[in-house]
Amino acid sequence: MCERCRTKDALPLPSRGGRRKLWTIPGEFHCSIVGTCLSSDDVAWLCRRLRLTLAADARPYDIHRYFVERAGTNGPEARLMQRRLDESAAGAIRRFAKETTEEGWLAQWEASVASGAVAQAYWAVLSHAGIPDAVRARAFSDVHMLSHIMGGESRRQLRDNQELARRCAELEERLARNERAAADHLAERDARIRDLEAQLAKRRSVASPAREIPSPPQRASGRLQREVEVLRRRLTAERMRARSAEAELDRLRPLLDGPPALRPQPVPTARTDEADAEAPADLNGQAILYVGGRPGTLPHLRAAVETRNGSLLHHDGGIEQTTHGLACLVEQADVVVCPIDCVSHNACLRVKGLCRRMGKPFVPMRSAGATSFARMLRTLNGAVGGAPDTPPA
């Protein structure tokens, strides 16, 4: 504390209205009032209003001591400090004025300390004329200890700030070193890139002479070459399709050939033409199952069968109809006919297996045309009732 705080003044009578003026409060409290209840902004405001001229070497302690000494005198400094303190602590003054017991004032004080509003509550306690000495002593002791605590905290923060400043300087120096190293690395990399680009340009100029603009014949030759490449790709695709067709034919060849004993004998062309002109044979009411084929030829095939006194059953081989109904149709039919060039391989094999299991004649046809079908009808008299597999028509 300053020298002013060590004086022991007699406690004067309270002023009218239940409030004490600053200069009527014992001097031992003035140091704590100025140091606690007046902020640095309040002190600056007082200096401006009082038009004080501070010395160049004036310290904060000198200003504090000046106002502590003037607080005990009824002068302009004390009255201006009184005004500033009353304005700052108006809310706390009203709260303490409502209390009438020592317990109530202590509760108000403890609540203010807990909320951090110590400065306003301290002035409200010391300026209240009716508050007993025990409450003022409690407030004074708490403020005194808070000053010690704040002093220790300030010293700790000062040490922390100094350590942070030192650490900041180290980090700034390290950052500067890293920036210099990065700049050197980038410069070295850029120089290396320029060197490599120069080497690459030199090699290109040596290995590849300057390209000349192609003349019209050269452009035409390039277009023809591109067309040749397109035709070559098409030829390759056609060859692949031909190989696929040959492989499919190899899979169907066993159906075409049949057993050696039942292979058809070659018929002279003239004889065949004569047979085509013969009258249609009588099928004697036989039912012929036609599996596969082309939908557009079905009316012609049906008419050919019905003119020969027969009936035609049809199954598309699984294109739209399921193959599960084939067994029922095979069972109803007397002869099963399958054009192997217009039916799936799986459907053909399934029909052939059903015919063997049920003992029905199976006649494979090389073509789905109407002429082949008519030729097959003329040979049915010899096939029906014979082996299940009949030579292909």
Automatic annotation (TrEMBL):
It comes from the Bacteria. InterPro entries: UCP020408. Residues 154-188 form a coiled coil. It holds the Pfam family DUF2325. Residues 204-224 are annotated as: Disordered. Keywords: Coiled coil. Belongs to the UPF0751 family. This is DUF2325 domain-containing protein.
